[in-house]
């Protein structure tokens, strides 16, 4: 059996790339006053306000122990608020505040920072996203 080098591991390349993405995003996110995981929550809420905590966790692949403190910090920044669903008190819904909605206007600077650094066409970006999504879904646990 051949010994694999670090560079032979696809998981390392993806891990290192994820860290680089975060570094490129950081200046734009700092200007917004949020972290990358907080940005991802905001993106989902900009897509559809009033999502449940459970839905946010499933979409972001985050457990409640990670997601709850993240939501609490966004709530402290007055970007969102959480409330129990009136039809099912077990469900907690997350809604944007006016400040959270307004932040969306500045959000294009985040993705623009990355697009400026990548030397890829839009077609290449879409193809790569498709391949990575296929890989992600193939690794999802089946319960």
Automatic annotation (TrEMBL):
Q: Does the keyword DNA-binding apply?
A: yes
The record's subcellular locations are: Cytoplasm
Keyword annotations of the record: Cytoplasm, DNA-binding, Transcription, Transcription regulation
One MF term in the entry's GO annotations: DNA binding
Q: Which residues form the HTH marR-type domain?
A: 7-143
- Gene Ontology terms: biological process: response to stress
| Keyword Transcription in record | yes
Q: What is its main location?
A: cytoplasm
A GO term from the CC aspect: cytoplasm
One Pfam family cited in the UniProt record for this chain: Staph_reg_Sar_Rot
Q: Which PANTHER family match?
A: ORGANIC HYDROPEROXIDE RESISTANCE TRANSCRIPTIONAL REGULATOR (PTHR33164:SF5), TRANSCRIPTIONAL REGULATOR, MARR FAMILY (PTHR33164)
Protein name per UniProt: DNA-binding transcriptional regulator, MarR family
Native source species: Chitinophaga costaii
């Amino acid at each position: 059996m051949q010994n694999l080098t670090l560079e032979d591991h696809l998981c390392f390349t993806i891990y290192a790339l994820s860290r680089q993405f975060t570094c490129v995003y950081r200046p734009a996110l700092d200007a917004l006053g949020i972290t990358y995981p907080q940005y991802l929550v905001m993106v989902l809420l900009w897509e559809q306000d009033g999502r449940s905590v459970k839905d946010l966790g499933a979409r972001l692949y985050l457990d409640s122990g990670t997601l709850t403190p993240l939501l609490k910090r966004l709530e402290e920044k007055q970007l969102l608020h959480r409330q129990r669903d009136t039809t099912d008190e077990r469900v907690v819904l997350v809604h944007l505040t006016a400040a959270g909605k307004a932040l969306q206007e500045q959000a294009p600077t985040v993705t623009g920072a990355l697009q400026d650094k990548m030397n890829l066409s839009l077609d290449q970006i879409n193809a790569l996203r498709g391949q990575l999504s296929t890989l992600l879904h193939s690794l999802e646990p089946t319960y």
